[in-house]
Each structure stands twice: as structure tokens, then as C-alpha cells.
């Protein structure tokens, strides 16, 4: 009699324990970001380190790609459920060509993370001095390209444009004198500025027309989003909370950033002024029509998105109050 | 052996000359100093790379991708090689396409690998497999045609089933070709996997190299490349020695 | 090999029909593998956008330049190594090792020194090309039949005559093989590099199409590369057969 009761109690306890574990099981999301180490690309890692995603019962598999197009492919093929920090024009182009993706939120608005530099002994001191000089960019349609053209128009200068590639190649060409002005995204090359080998001659934030344009967005795989809307809401709630946490706890978040990049905390602190919190706002996706025009003029797509497409491309499940 | 001494002297002198020329270039300021670090910096960076646990975790990922790709390629290559080599009509039907794809640089199939296998290690293993498959398949196919007909007839006269024919007659006769194909394939598998990592990955020794490039840690990049080269050439030398030993053993 | 033999053509038609059926039946997501009809349309697109002929010429030009440099450096080097047994033996294993080494992985080094330019592509292609040429030249010269040397001696040929009239011509077939290998390897390397650094001809086109998510066009480009490789192999085959003494 006693044994039967004990066994029943044990079974009951086991069931209760099992069901509570089942209820607590975290949802796993595969996420993919580009430019590992950049402040705005590390939001999820910061959130994981701060335990914010755990509180929403979400487990993240974070992977990093070499850039926007690769992240798009990862999400379009289902290799990742969501992708982060992708150029808006690239997303527009992929959507127009049938990629099963939706824009889930804004990622980065403006170009404040960009800066332009010259050798310390260069006669160039500000962007106004670059008429007739050469300036490097990654490729047509890139954020460096767009920012440089907007700034040139704004400051009424006529530089010559050279496709120098990514930051490392650009730096080499500037240092060897083949190109007069280079571009960089913090924190890369800030150390050379501190060492007085380079000087900053302009900021992306100087390009006024660009300040209100959401240049990077976050996307989700259409099928995944349709099947996991509740998980997505919890995810974005945690993501928004992570951004808040990063700015409310700079000592901790900058120490994390230093660790992610293998730089000192002081070098990490130099990065923060380049990222005003409003640049990371998840909503709204601003100046979207301008991004569509960019996509057309850079030949990513042959015709602008139709009105239906412009509505269908968005699927924003969570807007922070 | 005066000869061997002479050879060694030439090799040693060449190495010293190359290193001296590089050091001269590094100090000449002909090129931006950041991209040609002095030998000492590279040596220090190399020690750092060897001491860093991240090097070994990344190396393990690459080795796993190479191993999986290589094994898949070898098995598939042997099977396809035997099947295609044994049937003339199949050879004529499929041969040109095998040759064409074999000649194309496998890295251009990279987007297909990503589309089919995702962005993780599987796509890199797939690229390695694709790269290593062709040397094995083509060498085996060519060798199948040269299998001594006497052995084939003996097998047939024993009413051997197809499976038995493959295992007891064809495979033993094909071992040299298989090993030769594997040797070519291993080098290509290494290149395929590492290039795939450089193009799109967030782990692996190839990724480590491009990561150092992106962060402009140039001495570390040189050091990692040297490490990759030592391992790749070492692997080739090892298999070469195995092949020689195998040949000597069979000659007895 | 009969390139347009019925079996090969039949295989092609069968494969295309199967893939088209699979695509239309919804078995393959268009993202991963578009229907052959879409790929065929992609050909039209890239041809119209000038992404076919021009880039192909650039790619072949770079590979040819690399092979030429490889030959200009490699043939004399191979001859020198053949004539000096100690140097030849000293570098023999190194050359073999370098041949198998993943040279293309050094491209970040070349990028920082030569930047994203034709120089990087051609120089790296030249390194790939010079190795088989040196190896084949030396091997060819060393394998000159003793009979020919004996004949030369019996005619009291001077060393220079012996070299230019006997040894070198006898080594030409091997040298031609070396150049053929060099052309193929440098072409492979060139396309691969173009894809990696997003610069140059066909490889860059594939990379751009991938970046713009033009998937059917990208496949069309890949097929083009495979077809061009086939054509090149066939041409080299014909050329070698004609150059070889009967």
C-alpha cells in the first residue's frame, strides 16, 4: 500500500517536472549577421551575454557572413531564419527577384558609422578639399559609394572615384599613395587615427540627405515567419531590450565590444559616439522610396517595386511602444 | 656524398637568399610598411598563432570539412569511375561533361553549394567533395579500361556476381589508380574547402585568414598562411610517401 | 573524344528534360536550382548586358598573359635546371611540393600588395603557370634519348649545336605539354580569383550575379564557364595533335 503510494507520488512528481521542463524549453532561432564585430551587428551577442534572450526563452544560433548578399542567401535558403544588417537596396533587389524574405525591422539608419580619412601629411583636411583628388569605395551601390556621392553633391566637390574594395585594401592604397582618401567603418582604422598616421577628414553623419535613410534592414525567411509569429514577437522584444541594455550599460557593453573585436576598452569607447541610439531604431524603415530609387539607379533592379510589392515586402511583427 | 652536400648547400642558400630579399623589401619602404612586415614580426605572430587556442578550434573545423569532403569524394569517385569506365557508351555520354566540370574552377559552384547545403560547414565539405571527386573518378575510369582482361575473364568464368567482380577483380587492380587519384584529390579538396571558408564562413582556418585580413592584422595573416602551407604541403608529402611505399610493397 | 557524339547529346537532352520536369513539378525551389528554361533565359540576359563576350575575353586575356609570362620565365629556368644536375635535384622536390600547394590561398597577400587589379590576377596566374612549365621543360630535356646525343657526338657537334639542334627540339613535346597544363591551370586560377576578389572577367560576373540575387543568370554564367573550358580543352587537344611529330 505504502509502496504503491510512493510510486504514484514519484510518477506524479516526474510528470510535473517533465511538463515544467517542456514548458520551459527554449525556442531555437538560427540567425545570421554580417560584419562581425561592428556595434550594430553584435546586438544579439550582447543580448545573449546579458541573458535577455534567455528570459524570453529563446536560444540563438548566431553565425556571421562576409556581407549582405551572403546573409540574404542564407535566409532565402532557410539556412538562417533571420538575417541582420543587410543593405536595403540588396534586400529590395532580392525580394523583387523572388527571394522568400520579408523585412522584419530597420537595422541602421543614417551613415554615422562611416568616416573618411587621409594620410596624416596629406594636404586634404576636410571633405571640401577633395576636388580633383581620388576617393575609394567598395563597389557601386555600397554605402560608401552612396555616402560619398551625397557628400560630394552637398559640399560641391568633384573627386574621382576609385573602386578600392574593402577596408584593408583601401587602407593599403591610401598609405601607398595610390588613392588620396579612404573610407572606413568603426572601429577599423581608428587605431591608426589615434597613432596619428591617419586623420579623419569627414564623417558619414555629415551627409545630411543620408541621415534619415534606413540603409540597412533586418529580414526573416517568409515560411519561418509565418510558422513562428509568436516566437518572432518574443525575439524582437528581446532584441529591442538588448539595444536598450547596450546603451544603458555602456561599461558592460563596451567591455563586451572590446572582447568581440580583440581591442582595448578605450578603443571600444572611441566607437560609441559613432552610434547614436536613434540610428539603431528598429522602426520605422525610413526613406524607403529613396532606397527603391537607389536600387534602380545602381541597376540592382530594372524597375521600381510595384505598390503591391512595396506593401508585401514588409512583415513587421513587433513595434516597441 | 659530395652530391648530397651540394644539393643541401644550394637549398639552404636559396632559403637564406629569399628571406634576405624579403627583409630587404620590408625595410626598403618601397611598399607600405603595413603590408610587408619584417621577418621578426612574422615570427612573433607565428608563435602567437601557434599559442592561440582559436587556431586549433578553427583548424579542427577545417580538418573535419576536408575529411568529410574527401571521403565522400573518394567513395563517389571510385563508384562513378568504375561504372563509367566499364561502359563505353556511358563514357561517351557522360565523359565530356565530367571533363568540362573538372576543368572549371570549383569555387564558381560555391553559390550552388550554399544554396543546397546552407551556410554552415556542410557547404564547405561539399565544395571539397566536388573538387576531389574528379581526379579520383577520372583516374579510376581511365584505369578501368586498362584492367587486365585475363582477370576479368577469370572472374566471369567463375560466374562471379557484379558485386564480387567489383570487390575481387576490379578494386584490387585499381588500387594504384585510386591512390594516385586520391593524392591529386586531397590537394584539391584542401583548396576547395579553404576557399569556401574564405568566401563565406565564420569558422575554419581559411576564415581565420580572411578575418585577419579584414582586421588588417597582417603579420598574423602571413603567419596563418604559412601554417596552412606547411600543413598542406606536409599532407601531400605524406601521401606521396605512402604511395611510394605502397608501390614498393606491391613490386615485391 | 567525339564531342558531339550522339550519346553525349542524348545525355544532355535527358538531363535537361528531367530537370525541367522537376522544376515545374515544384520539386526544386527556384531559389536553389531554377528550371533549365529559366537558365536559358538567363543566358539572354547576361549576353544582352554585355556580361558574356567582353568578360570572357578579359578572362582569357589574363590567363594567356599569365601563361606567356610563365613560359618566358619557365622555359629558360627549366633548361638551366636540366643542365645543372645539382640545382635540378636541389629544387626538384620543392617544385613538386609547390605544384601541389594551395597557392591560390595566398591571394590576400597579393591583394594588399597589388590591390584589386589585373596585376594580382596575372601575377598569381603566372606563378601557377610557371611551375608545370619548369617541371615539364626540365623533364623533357633530361629524357632526350641517348641515341640522339650519341648521334650528335658522332658528328662532332659543338655544345651549342648539340643543345639547339638535338636536345631542345627533342624536349619540345614535353614543353608543349607543360604549356598546355599551364594554360589550363592559369585559366582555372584566373576565374577562381576573379570570383574571389570580384574583379576582372567571367569570375567577377558570377560573383556580381550572386550578390545581386540573379540566380538563373548566375547559373547561366556557370554553364558558360564549363562550356568554355570544354572548348578550350578541345582546341588544345587539336593543337597538340597537330604540333606533335607524326
Question: Can you describe this structure?
Answer:
The complex is a heterotrimer of chains A (321), B (252) and C (246). Chain A is α/β, with parallel strands linked by helices and 321 residues long. Chain A folds into two domains: 177 residues, D-Maltodextrin-Binding Protein, domain 2 (3-Layer(aba) Sandwich); 95 residues, 3-Layer(aba) Sandwich (D-Maltodextrin-Binding Protein, domain 2), CATH 3.40.190. Chain A is built from 14 helices and ten strands. In chain A, the strands form three sheets. In chain A, strands 2-1-3-10-4 form a five-stranded mixed sheet, with helices on both faces. In chain A, helix 6 links the parallel strand 6 and strand 7. Chain A starts with a helix and ends in a 9-residue tail after the last helix. Chain B folds into two domains: 36 residues; 214 residues, MetI-like fold. In chain B, helix 2 crosses helix 10, helix 3 packs antiparallel against helix 4 and helix 8 packs antiparallel against helix 10. Chain B is mainly alpha-helical. The radius of gyration of chain B is 23 Å and the shape is globular. Chain B is built from ten helices and no strands. The model of chain B has no long low-confidence stretch (mean pLDDT 86). Chain C is mostly helical. Chain C has a domain of 106 residues. Chain C has ten helices and no strands. The longest helix of chain C is centred in the C-terminal third of the chain and has 39 residues. Chain C is elongated. Chain C starts with 5 loop residues before the first helix and ends with a helix. Classes of the chains: A alpha/beta (321), B mainly alpha (252), C mainly alpha (246). Chains in contact: A-B, A-C, B-C. The interface between B and C is large, with 55 and 54 residues.
Q: In total, how many beta strands of chain C?
A: 0
Low-confidence stretches of chain C: none
Oligomeric state: heterotrimer
Number of helices of chain B: 10
CATH architecture of the largest domain in chain B: Orthogonal Bundle
Tell me, briefly, the overall form of chain B: globular
Which overall shape of chain C is indicated by the principal axes computed on the Cα atoms? elongated
Amino acid at each position: 500500500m505504502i509502496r504503491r503510494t510512493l510510486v504514484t507520488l514519484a510518477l506524479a512528481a516526474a510528470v510535473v517536472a517533465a511538463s515544467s521542463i517542456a514548458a520551459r524549453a527554449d525556442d531555437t532561432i538560427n540567425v545570421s549577421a554580417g560584419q562581425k564585430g561592428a556595434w550594430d551587428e553584435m546586438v544579439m551577442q550582447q543580448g545573449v551575454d546579458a541573458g535577455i534572450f534567455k528570459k524570453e526563452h529563446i536560444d540563438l544560433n548566431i553565425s556571421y557572413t562576409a556581407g549582405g548578399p551572403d546573409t540574404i542567401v542564407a535566409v532565402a535558403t532557410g539556412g538562417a531564419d533571420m538575417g541582420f544588417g543587410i543593405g536595403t537596396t540588396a534586400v529590395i533587389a532580392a525580394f523583387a527577384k523572388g527571394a522568400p524574405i520579408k523585412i522584419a525591422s530597420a537595422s541602421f539608419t543614417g551613415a554615422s558609422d562611416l568616416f573618411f580619412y587621409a594620410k596624416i601629411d596629406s594636404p586634404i583636411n576636410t571633405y571640401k578639399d577633395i576636388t580633383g583628388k581620388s576617393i575609394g569605395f567598395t563597389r557601386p551601390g555600397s554605402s560608401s559609394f552612396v555616402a560619398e556621392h551625397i557628400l560630394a553633391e552637398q559640399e560641391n566637390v568633384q573627386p574621382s572615384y576609385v573602386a578600392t574594395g574593402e577596408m584593408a585594401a583601401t587602407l593599403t592604397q591610401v598609405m601607398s599613395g595610390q588613392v588620396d582618401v579612404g573610407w572606413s567603418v568603426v572601429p577599423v582604422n581608428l587605431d591608426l587615427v589615434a597613432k596619428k598616421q591617419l586623420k579623419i577628414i569627414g564623417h558619414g553623419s555629415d551627409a545630411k540627405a543620408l541621415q534619415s535613410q534606413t540603409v540597412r534592414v533586418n529580414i526573416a525567411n517568409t515560411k519561418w515567419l509565418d510558422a513562428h509569429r509568436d516566437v518572432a514577437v518574443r525575439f524582437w522584444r528581446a532584441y529591442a531590450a538588448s539595444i536598450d541594455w547596450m546603451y544603458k550599460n555602456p561599461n558592460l557593453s563596451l567591455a563586451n565590444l572590446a572582447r568581440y573585436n580583440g581591442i582595448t576598452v578605450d578603443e571600444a569607447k572611441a566607437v560609441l559616439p559613432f552610434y547614436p541610439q536613434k540610428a539603431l531604431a528598429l522602426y520605422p524603415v525610413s526613406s524607403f522610396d529613396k532606397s527603391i530609387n537607389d536600387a534602380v539607379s545602381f541597376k540592382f533592379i530594372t524597375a521600381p517595386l510595384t505598390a503591391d510589392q512595396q506593401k508585401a515586402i514588409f512583415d513587421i511583427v513587433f513595434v516597441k511602444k | 656524398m659530395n652530391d648530397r652536400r651540394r644539393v643541401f648547400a644550394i637549398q639552404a642558400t636559396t632559403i637564406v637568399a629569399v628571406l634576405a630579399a624579403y627583409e630587404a623589401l620590408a625595410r626598403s619602404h618601397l611598399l607600405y610598411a603595413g603590408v610587408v612586415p619584417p621577418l621578426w614580426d612574422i615570427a612573433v605572430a607565428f608563435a602567437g598563432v601557434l599559442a592561440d587556442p582559436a587556431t586549433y578550434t578553427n583548424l579542427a573545423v577545417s580538418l573535419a570539412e576536408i575529411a568529410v569532403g574527401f571521403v565522400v569524394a573518394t567513395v563517389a569517385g571510385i563508384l562513378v569511375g568504375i561504372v563509367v569506365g566499364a561502359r563505353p557508351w556511358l563514357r561517351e555520354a557522360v565523359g565530356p561533361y565530367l571533363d568540362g566540370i573538372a576543368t572549371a574552377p570549383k569555387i564558381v559552384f560555391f553559390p550552388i553549394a550554399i544554396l543546397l547545403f546552407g551556410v554552415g560547414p556542410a557547404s564547405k565539405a561539399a565544395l571539397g567533395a566536388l573538387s576531389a571527386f574528379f581526379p579520383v573518378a577520372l583516374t579510376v575510369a581511365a584505369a578501368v579500361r586498362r584492367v587486365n582482361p585475363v582477370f576479368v575473364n577469370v572472374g566471369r568464368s567463375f560466374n562471379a556476381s557484379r558485386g564480387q567482380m567489383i570487390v575481387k577483380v576490379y578494386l584490387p587492380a585499381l588500387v594504384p589508380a585510386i591512390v594516385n587519384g586520391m593524392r591529386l584529390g586531397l590537394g584539391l579538396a584542401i583548396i576547395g574547402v579553404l576557399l569556401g571558408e574564405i568566401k563565406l564562413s565564420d569558422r575554419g582556418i581559411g576564415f581565420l585568414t580572411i578575418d585577419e585580413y579584414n582586421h588588417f592584422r597582417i603579420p598574423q595573416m602571413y603567419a596563418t598562411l604559412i601554417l596552412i602551407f606547411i600543413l598542406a604541403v606536409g599532407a601531400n608529402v605524406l601521401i606521396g610517401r605512402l604511395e611510394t611505399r605502397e608501390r614498393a610493397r606491391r613490386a615485391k | 573524344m567525339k564531342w558531339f557524339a550522339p550519346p553525349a547529346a542524348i545525355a544532355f537532352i535527358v538531363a535537361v528534360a528531367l530537370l525541367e520536369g522537376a522544376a515545374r513539378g515544384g520539386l526544386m525551389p527556384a531559389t536553389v536550382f531554377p528550371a533549365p528554361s529559366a537558365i536559358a533565359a538567363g543566358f539572354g540576359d547576361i549576353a544582352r548586358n554585355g556580361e558574356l563576350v567582353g568578360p570572357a575575353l578579359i578572362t582569357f586575356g589574363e590567363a594567356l598573359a599569365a601563361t606567356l609570362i610563365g613560359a618566358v620565365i619557365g622555359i629558360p629556368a627549366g633548361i638551366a635546371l636540366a643542365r645543372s644536375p645539382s640545382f635540378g635535384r636541389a629544387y626538384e622536390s620543392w617544385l613538386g611540393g609547390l605544384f601541389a600547394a594551395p597557392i591560390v590561398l595566398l591571394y590576400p597577400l597579393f591583394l594588399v600588395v597589388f590591390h584589386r587589379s589585373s596585376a594580382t590576377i596575372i601575377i598569381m596566374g603566372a606563378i601557377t603557370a610557371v611551375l608545370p612549365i619548369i617541371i615539364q621543360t626540365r623533364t623533357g630535356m633530361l629524357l632526350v634519348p641517348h641515341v640522339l646525343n650519341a648521334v650528335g657526338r658522332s658528328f662532332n657537334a659543338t655544345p651549342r649545336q648539340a643543345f639547339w639542334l638535338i636536345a631542345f627540339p627533342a624536349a619540345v613535346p614535353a614543353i608543349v605539354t607543360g604549356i598546355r597544363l599551364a594554360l589550363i591551370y592559369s585559366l582555372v586560377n584566373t576565374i577562381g580569383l576573379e570570383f574571389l576578389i570580384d574583379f576582372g572577367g567571367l569570375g567577377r560576373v558570377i560573383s556580381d550575379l550572386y550578390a545581386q540575387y540573379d540566380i538563373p543568370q548566375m547559373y547561366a554564367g556557370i554553364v558558360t564557364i564549363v562550356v568554355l573550358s570544354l572548348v578550350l580543352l578541345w582546341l588544345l587537344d587539336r593543337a597538340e595533335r597537330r604540333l606533335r611529330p607524326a
